[in-house]
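ok trying this again, last paste got cut off
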Amino acid sequence: MPFKPIRLLIAYDDTRGFCGSVVPRMKQMLEERAFVVDTFVIGGPDPRERLDLELYTGLIVGAPVLRAGLRPSTLPEPVAAFLDGVDALDEKKLAVFSVYGLWPGTMVEALKQKVGELGGECVAEYAYWRLKPEWGEHVVPAECMIRIR
């Protein structure tokens, strides 16, 4: 049987460029692990763009921690709306990540809670520090390699 690569979508809120600072390297590391990876900026310049999410076995969803991260994080509305629009979320493998400036806060937990409310399950999670995104950069790609098949 011929090898069929697994397709993943990295969908992220790029407010202030936080998530965009880690996505290119994350995409590269996933592609080195034989995934086919597309990216999508949630709330980007073309809201009419429609994604065919049925094409993807797994989703990786990211959101920035915009405040200092000392208070509980609230999921950005565009990210919540994106997740609400995913049909059959319980059939997808999901990973979540956040990118913070000062303190990781609770954004990863907020993402996991929303996914859980919609019937999904997170297979990987990580909070990246914007100033040193290479710290732990392997976590999400490695967990996806193991858990999204």
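PB: full thing came through this time. The mean pLDDT is 88.
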